[in-house]
TrEMBL record:
<feature type="domain" description="Helicase ATP-binding">
    <location>
        <begin position="24"/>
        <end position="193"/>
    </location>
</feature>
<keyword id="KW-0234">DNA repair</keyword>
<keyword id="KW-0413">Isomerase</keyword>
<dbReference type="GO" id="GO:0016787">
    <property type="term" value="F:hydrolase activity"/>
</dbReference>
<dbReference type="GO" id="GO:0043138">
    <property type="term" value="F:3'-5' DNA helicase activity"/>
</dbReference>
<comment type="similarity">
    <text>Belongs to the helicase family. RecQ subfamily.</text>
</comment>
<keyword id="KW-0479">Metal-binding</keyword>
<feature type="domain" description="Helicase C-terminal">
    <location>
        <begin position="203"/>
        <end position="364"/>
    </location>
</feature>
<dbReference type="GO" id="GO:0009432">
    <property type="term" value="P:SOS response"/>
</dbReference>
<dbReference type="GO" id="GO:0046872">
    <property type="term" value="F:metal ion binding"/>
</dbReference>
<dbReference type="GO" id="GO:0009378">
    <property type="term" value="F:four-way junction helicase activity"/>
</dbReference>
<keyword id="KW-0378">Hydrolase</keyword>
<dbReference type="GO" id="GO:0006260">
    <property type="term" value="P:DNA replication"/>
</dbReference>
<keyword id="KW-0238">DNA-binding</keyword>
<keyword id="KW-0233">DNA recombination</keyword>
<protein>
    <recommendedName>
        <fullName>DNA helicase RecQ</fullName>
        <ecNumber>5.6.2.4</ecNumber>
    </recommendedName>
</protein>
<keyword id="KW-0347">Helicase</keyword>
Length: 524
């Protein structure tokens, strides 16, 4: 059976989606693969089809028990012999599964990374014919990723310990350069075929709203979109409870999902949503992994998430059927403070991560990128795509920022002052000090640092802080300056060659608040 017939036979699909066939063919030719595809693109099939066609067994390293269970259940239903090995099984169940595996019962075996070092699993793997090792959610191998999992570092040893090196294929939805390089390097992929499919989900309409009355906004939005399925993401369980109660009291069919609920309750609430017994599910980010509801028409974030990776993944649960869907982020500056606190109190005690400081720095960096998404007045789609390493062209004309009325201001002279200020202070300071200096504020801290003696001190005293922020974020986008990726990041000068030209222009856009936004700012 060829790949296409295998697809039809087991999964019932007539054709491959973008990128899938390329990955399948590369694996079948015996090449290592790194596939970077957004959530919902159909990564599983990319390794399941070759797994079915290769002689031996495929081992899939996967980070989450629930994910493994779902996959194995779906495969069994499709008539594929598959099993998982993880801590949800007792020791004797594991022994039995490994015995059956060694008899050739299973074509695909999912395994938690922690098992790879175990004696029993290794004994099995060394005596079996392993054709492929697949690493799902491969970004877990990188300390740059937000889900770093130390046990993923053991994968290479495991592969090297096998009598014959299998094909190694890795899959992830995180495409930042750092993560990609880490995967290629740490897994030591052999002349890999790297397949990156577009991160642009054209049917998704992105919007950021900074309104004071978030509750009123949500209630009205849902009532204006009756019978549509939607997800409301909140930062905390407390918010989740409150918003869900509010919706119910407004007669909206809603249920909630967070880690504080019992397993059974969570499952019931999730099913209520999947089977359309409720329209809306209010959830923390615990909700969504492995959920495949195609007709989610809107995803509203009640609070700003901690990173673009999280946002893209959560918002991406909208519109999996390819029909138009909306992704709305309700931003308030308070969200930044809350997230900083959450990140600061993040618990590392159950990991063996050594460099916690480094992880914290990167967390803070990702939070800043996320905050800038909420504050930018540029095309939101391009902002997302650029972050995930794609080149972008014109504005999309199909996002909240592109469609909002704005006024453009030429800030070329002001931009040069920002550069002067960073140069004069030798790139030692972050946003607050640079802005304070440019505004010429009279603060002891600035006198202490000596920035009050510079020429740029007070050079932009007629601008508001918000406008200077906007200008700086525009300049970062244009690459004239950049923020270092430390916890206390500083501004540095980037590539200013083009700014030297007489014709250079730095233009910022300022949104006019829409009547709708004003309404939700003032409504009682
Ligand atoms: P990912 O892991 O990339 O988030 P999944 O592997 O869970 O995505 O696939 C998302 C959905 O798309 C699943 O319901 C899957 O069955 C479906 N799918 C995958 N490939 C195809 C295809 N070629 N044709 C139609 N549907 C597909």
């Amino acid at each position: 059976m060829d790949a296409k017939s295998t697809l039809k036979h087991y999964f019932g699909y007539d054709s491959f989606r973008g990128g899938q066939e390329e990955v399948v063919n590369a694996i079948l030719e015996g090449r290592d693969v790194l596939a970077i595809m957004p959530t919902g693109a159909g990564k599983s099939i990319c390794y399941q089809i070759p797994a079915l066609m290769l002689d031996g067994i495929t081992i899939v390293v996967s980070p989450l028990i629930s994910l493994m269970q779902d996959q194995v259940k779906a495969l069994n239903k499709a008539g594929v012999h598959a099993a998982y090995i993880n801590s949800s099984l007792t020791e004797s169940q594991i022994s039995k599964a490994l015995f059956l595996a060694s008899q050739g019962t299973y074509k695909i075996i999912y395994v938690a990374p922690e098992r790879l070092g175990g004696y029993e699993f290794n004994a099995f793997a060394r005596s079996a014919h392993i054709s492929m090792v697949t690493i799902d959610e491969a970004h877990c191998i990188s300390q740059w990723g937000q889900d770093f999992r130390p046990a993923y570092l053991k994968i290479l040893d495991f592969v090297n310990g096998l009598p014959k090196r299998p094909v190694v294929s890795a899959f992830t939805a995180t495409a930042t350069k750092e993560v990609k390089d880490d995967i290629l390097c740490i897994l030591n992929l052999n002349a890999p075929k790297v397949v990156i499919t577009g991160f642009d989900r054209q049917n998704l309409y992105y919007r950021v709203e900074q309104v004071r009355k978030k509750d009123a906004f949500i209630v009205d939005y849902i009532k204006e979109h009756p019978d549509q399925s939607g997800i409301i993401y909140c930062a905390t369980r407390k918010n989740t409870d409150a918003v869900c109660e509010l919706l119910k009291s407004e007669g909206i069919r809603a249920s909630e999902y967070h880690a504080g609920l019992g397993t059974e309750q969570r499952k019931n609430n999730q099913d209520d949503f999947i089977y359309d017994r409720v329209d809306v599910i209010v959830a923390t980010n615990a909700f969504g992994m492995g959920i495949d509801k195609p007709d989610v028409r809107f995803v509203i974030h009640y609070n700003m998430p901690q990173s673009m990776e999280n946002y893209y993944q959560e918002a991406g649960r909208a519109g999996r059927d390819g029909e138009p869907a909306e992704c709305i982020l309700l931003f308030s500056p308070q969200d930044v403070v809350i997230n900083r606190m959450l990140l600061d109190s993040k618990d590392f005690s159950d990991t063996d991560i050594e460099d916690i400081e480094l992880i914290k720095q990167r967390d803070m960096y990702r939070l800043r990128v996320m905050e800038n998404y909420c504050r930018t007045t540029e095309c939101l789609r391009n902002y997302i795509l650029r972050y995930f390493g794609e080149n972008t062209g014109e504005s999309c004309n199909n996002c909240g920022n592109c469609n909002q009325a704005y006024t453009e201001y030429d800030m070329t002279d002001e931009a040069r002052w920002v550069i002067n200020c960073i140069a004069e202070t030798h790139g030692r300071y972050g946003l607050t000090i640079v802005i304070g200096t440019l505004m010429g504020v009279d603060r002891a801290r600035l006198r202490e640092l000596g920035t009050t003696v510079y020429r740029s001190y007070g050079a932009l005293k007629d601008m508001s802080e918000a406008d200077i922020r906007l200008l700086i974020s525009r300049m970062i986008q244009l690459g004239y300056i950049y923020q270092t990726q430390e916890q206390y990041s500083v501004l540095r000068i980037g590539n200013i060659e083009s700014l030297r030209s007489e014709a250079a222009r730095v233009v910022i856009r300022k949104h006019k608040k829409t009547p709708e936004q004003l309404y939700y700012d003032t409504r009682g």
